[in-house]
Structures are given as C-alpha cells and as structure tokens.
Amino acid sequence: MSQIEEVPQSLSYWQDVRKRFFANKISILGLVMLVLLIVIGIVGPFISGWKYDDLGPDILSPPFQKGHWLGTDDLGRDLFTRVTFGIRLSLTVAIVVTIISVFVGVTLGGLAGYFGGWIDTLISRFI
Questions:
Q1: Cα dist from 125 to 32, 118, 119, whole Å
Q2: CB 85 within 8 A of CB 97
Q3: What is the CA radius of gyration of the chain?
Q4: Each residue of 58-108: pLDDT tens digit?
C-alpha cells in the first residue's frame, strides 16, 4: 500500500525575495520613503509655482504664507522648490555613482576571472 503525498510547491527565488522583503517593516518604510522622495523630486517643481533662484519681495516669509509651503530663506527664495531640486541632485548623484561602481566592479571582476593568477591576487588585494 503506497500513499502519494502531495509535495508543497516551493517558492521561486524572486517569490522568496518578495516574501522576505514585505515581511520586514523597516524595508517597507524605506521603500515608501524612497518612492516619496522620487515623487517629490519629479512633481515638486511643477506644483510649487516658484523657480529655483527666484528672489521674492517677501523675505523671511513663514511657512504656508504667500504660497511658500516651507517658507523662504534670508534671500526670499522658496525653500520647498530648493528642497525639490536638492532631492533631484542627490538622486542623480546616487544613480551616477552606482552606475560607475557597477562598471568598475564588473570590469575588475571580469579581468580577475579571465586572467586569474597574479592579476586575480592583485585585484583581490586592493578591492
């Protein structure tokens, strides 16, 4: 008498990654913050109504006064607009540095893997 037991279906690699990611509350918070920063960086300059370097007559305007969501600095420039451009710059720098790092890492890893020997040892010592 043989009994056939049903084997539970195993998760694929990406299903397991997704399950672990969404089980961790801190990773979800980080994802929400990243998406929020990207959305503010993209949409912010279009909804603020001010240019990056506009000098206004209402110097030192408090927040939410005269259309300045975060107020103005000592030169009358809108802080919300400047923050959105700062977010854009920070995300651009992060993406460029990541691309450069991947390029350098793949190149050095490829050289070390292809040639091996002393070249692999040399690259491994410095990396």
A1: 38, 10, 10
A2: no
A3: 25
A4: 666 677 777 777 888 878 788 888 899 999 999 999 999 999 999 999 999
